[in-house]
Design a protein that fits this description.
Layout (H helix, E strand, L loop, with lengths): L6 H13 L2 H8 L3 H15 L4 E4 L2 E4 L1 H23 L7 E8 L3 H15 L3 E8 L1 H9 L5 E5 L8 E13 L10 E6 L4 H13 L3 E7 L2 H9 L5 E4 L8 E3 L9 E9 L5 H20 L2
Parallel strand pairs: 3-4, 3-5, 7-8
Antiparallel strand pairs: 1-2, 5-11, 6-9, 6-10, 6-11
Helix pairs in contact: 1-2, 1-3, 1-4, 2-3, 4-9, 5-9
Length: about 290
């Protein structure tokens, strides 16, 4: 009989890979650091490969470790999906879900129908706010779950979807040739605003903010109409009036990760059902562009 990978060992390995720490992993999986180290060793014996190395930069996955991480995440997801699919009890009750304001329209159009079809007995309250505000509201007990933009310290969160952030300019005007650069900037406590300012600072370009708004759609319109350039999620670039600025000038390789976070005590089966609804909503909205 061919060897079979132990899901418990895989879960520990994936957690180490995500956190980059044995100590933090031990807290998450409720084991000692020694036990975590032993589990990784057992998994290396099962696979016949060295999976990770420790150095002054922390824990680094080997090439074999990177490969196993891809398959391991898929296997754990499939395992949870199987458990959820075989669950015989209908999910009922009330649930408060936070949605980022800039994705509210798509989720009203695509997420709510999918949720109603999948979990008709669940009474859901949707709250729209900024990602960082949603994090605070969940911590304060005002939300059960929320979709939020990933921060630098959110490697253990469940990624629901990703999209590229693109430096965009109007097709008809080469605004990037102007000095200072006319920029449309997000006016709120937002990771996209932070990334935009960091890139402008890194490249040393002189710039002036000519348009500001707390609504991302407004920034996209400002670019389309030839007022400014801006760093935008690719989902907002849906026509031939905008183009990507060359990477030699401003980097367009940044990725926005949207993650699901939940309060302690939320049933994992409920979380899994909601993740599937979110992902289906994203696919439906993308196919409509």
């Amino acid at each position: 009989m061919p060897p079979v990978l132990d899901l418990d060992l895989l879960r520990t390995f994936v957690t180490v890979a995500r956190t980059g720490e044995f100590k933090k992993t031990a807290e998450i999986v409720c084991r000692s650091q020694g036990a975590v180290s032993m589990q990784i060793k057992r998994l290396e014996e099962q696979t016949g490969s060295r999976l990770m190395e420790r150095n002054n930069r922390g824990i680094q996955l080997t090439e074999a470790g990177e490969t196993l991480l891809i398959y391991g995440e898929q296997m754990l997801q499939l395992s949870q999906s199987a458990i959820s699919a075989l669950s015989t009890h209908e999910l009922t009750g009330k649930l408060s879900v936070g949605i980022p304001t800039d994705y509210a329209q798509d989720f009203l159009s695509y997420f709510m129908p999918a949720l109603h079809d999948t979990l008709p007995g669940l009474e859901t309250r949707i709250i729209c706010d900024r990602s960082r505000n949603l994090r605070q509201r969940l911590t304060a007990g005002e939300l059960d779950l929320a979709i939020v933009a990933a921060e630098s310290d959110s490697s253990t969160e469940r990624v629901v979807w990703t999209e590229q952030l693109i430096w965009s300019a109007p097709c008809a005007i080469r605004l990037e040739d102007q000095t200072p650069l006319p920029v449309a900037l997000y006016e709120d406590n937002c990771i996209v605003r932070d990334l935009c300012l960091e890139e402008l600072k890194r490249t040393g370009h002189r710039y002036k903010v000519v348009f500001g708004s707390p609504v991302m759609e407004n920034l996209a319109t400002a670019v389309e109409q030839g007022f400014a350039i801006s760093l935008l999620p690719e989902s907002l670039i849906r026509n031939n009036r905008t183009r990507m600025i060359a990477n030699t000038m401003l980097s367009s390789h940044q990725v926005l990760k949207m993650c699901l976070i939940n309060a302690e005590g939320i049933d994992e089966t409920t979380v899994e059902h909601l993740v599937r609804c979110f992902r289906q909503a994203v696919k439906d909205s993308q196919s409509s562009y």
